[in-house]
Amino acid sequence: MSNLDVHGSLEPLPTPVTASTIIEVRQLMKTYRVGEIDVHALNGVDLNVRRGEFLAIIGTSGSGKSTLFNILGGLTPPTSGSVAINGRELHTMSDAERNDLRKRTVGFVFQKYNLLPTLTAEQNIQIVRDVAGRPIAFDERFKEVLEMLGISKRMHHKPRALSGGEQQRVAIARAIVNGPAILLADEPTGNLDTKNSDIVLSLLRDLNKRLGQTILMITHNPEAAAYADRTVQMRDGCVV
Amino acid sequence: MPLSAILRVLVNQLIFANLMHRPVRTLLSMLAIGVEVTMILTLVGVSYGTLDASARRARGIGADVFVRPPGSSAISLSSAPLSEKMVPVLAQEPGVALATGTMVQSMGGFETIQGVDFPAIDKMASTWRKPGDPEKEGFKFTEGTAFQEPDDIIVDEYYARQKKLHPGDHIKLINHDWRVSGIFESGKLARILAPIGTLQRLTGNEGKISAVYLKLTNPKQADAFVAALRGKLNPGDPDHGYQVYTVEDFVSQLSVSNVAMLKDFIYVVIGIATIVGFIVVFMAMYTAVLERTREIGILKAVGAGPTYILNILFRETLMLAILGTVVGIVLTYGTQWLIGHAVPASLVQETVYSWWPIAAAIAIVGAMLGTVVPAMRAVRQDATEALSYE
Fold first, then answer.
1. What is the complex's ipTM, to 2 decimals?
2. Interface of B with A in 184-223 (CB under 8 A)
């Protein structure tokens, strides 16, 4: 791993922790309509994330953290407020630009892994390259990342043949294969036992420390949050 | 390998994996598209085959010219409005070597019984073409002989096979008990031939015939002979009244495009087949999209746009349609075998290769149309809802 220095590895990814802000959230509001009732999932969230930071957002169920995750990833629009990713306002982006954001700038890790069941681990990773219009062959540096994640020998297995921990590590590899500036992880250890949780969290921390990957992790577990550089808490749709 | 080729391979792998993920649904979809293709190809094959068989049988008796009554059409099955006195009159025409009249009686559907003057028709069939030609020898009997009695009939080998008939067997046709005297090699006139006198009497058409067949002394003069005879039979208006054709003209009229009813019927079947294909693919792709809601959400989450998702779904449909077409073509050989063994006398099915791409195009278009709505649903699916879909 020693040659995985923070300069010149995965495409635009190597970004040392600096004072520059990569995610800037201002007065973010999100209201869902459930039947005839308005549910205020986010009530004026303000948040700054520095480039290269490993941030944990902790909160109970219903605190709005997953809604924030979806908005930051461009998966759902906010009701009001602003989100700037890498200096670009999300609300000014077209659908195609938001797709591009997910292809190149933001990678996702989900609680339920969300691997395509009909493809092998390798193909699950390759298809993200394919979607981004990039060559699907892995370069040497990415192969080293796979070694680091401990899944290089499991590439030809389908998800059903992998353990939960292995599936989540494949999902992490998929999330970073295009070298995104930001990795968003929503309860990445929510479906894992303690041992695998430790492995996955350690890997996220390694990615952050070794590659300078900006990580924003949503969790309800304080022990998981302890792996991050900084923790912010959400309650009732606000950062407290 | 070029980038586009690499991408194509990966997406094809995904499509193939999707199809294999639900093998029963995939097989049923292919089968349904196959049935659609078979419906089209079988109908077209039977249409072409039956008309071609009629053309072969029309050629088979060696006549050069037909004379038919006014108002008849190429595929009219029965009627006897001509007087049989026309036969000796036409036989006296310059250039006519032989003349014989026949009458045709429908037995319902496409089956007919044809009354003939057997010695005359056999002589006409025997005296054409050069020596050594296998079709020169007139009627050839595989079993039995020509008519021995007024109530005898002869049937061709296909009819005999279909009805399991042998010489000496009795069969009731047009309310009359006939004895089968012989079974002849197919290729001449109708599949069932009876003595013309008996048939005229049984149908109340004494002295009436349906057509006159003429053998010319010089077949190369057939066109000129027809023009002259038309002028003589239809004074003042040669193109109306008695219908006089060379055999080759008559045969050329026996094509699908000349039979309006048949053409319309083919269009109707194509329409039904297309709707069947559309519904089946719609159902298959709708359930596939519903089932893959989460997967589509995953693809959207990693940045896949509408084009990428539509590309996957339509290519999957295309693959189904192509495989279904192959199944349909194979099934068509099955229907051909079935028709050839079950009803060889009633229907003849040909393999019409020129319709393979047409049937394939119809199947593909129907399948693509069936994919539009499910595909639009997939594209419009909210990514966050899709990701939480169980």
1. 0.86
2. none
Q: Are residues B384 and A76, on separate chains, in Cβ contact within 8 Å?
A: yes
What is the least distance, in Å, from the CA of B44 to any CA of chain A? Answer: 40
Q: pLDDT per residue over A30-62, tens digit each?
A: 998 888 888 889 999 999 999 999 999 999 888
Residues in chain B closer than 8 A to A174 (CB atoms): 302
Residue B183 is predicted with a pLDDT of 93
Residue A172's nearest CA partner among A135, A134, A211 is: A211
- Comparing B80 with B144, the larger pLDDT belongs to B144
Nearest chain A residue to B14 by CA: give it: A119
pLDDT of residue B137: 62
Which of A75, A93, A115 to probe the B interface (max B CBs under 10 A)? A75
Model pLDDT for residues A85-136, shown as the tens digit of each residue: 988 898 888 888 999 999 989 999 998 889 998 889 999 999 999 899 888 8
Reported as half-sphere exposure (CB side, CA atoms, 13 A), residue B11 has a value of 24
Tokens 């037995």 map to which residue?
A: B107
Give the contacts of B155 (CB within 8 A, at least 6 positions apart).
B163, B165, B180, B183, B184, B191, B192, B193
Which neighbouring-strand residues pair with B186? none
Which of B302, B315, B384 best probes binding to A when mutated, by most A CB atoms within 10 angstroms? B302
Give contacts of B300 with chain A, Cβ < 8 Å. 75, 99, 102
Size of interface A-B (CB pairs under 8 A): 76
Asked if the C-beta of B6 comes within 8 angstroms of chain A's C-beta atoms, the answer is yes
| Predicted confidence (pLDDT) at residue B239 exceeds the cutoff of 80 | no
Residues from chain A that touch B18, judged by Cβ atoms under 8 A, are 118
B121: pLDDT confidence band, cut at 50, 70 and 90?
confident
Q: Does B343 touch chain A (CB under 8 A)?
A: no
Domains of chain A in sequence order: 21-239 (3.40.50.300)
For chain A, how many residues are written?
A: 240
pLDDT of B147-184, one tens digit each?
999 999 999 988 898 888 999 999 998 889 999 999 99
**B311: closest chain A residue by CA:** A131
In this prediction, residue A185 carries a pLDDT of: 93
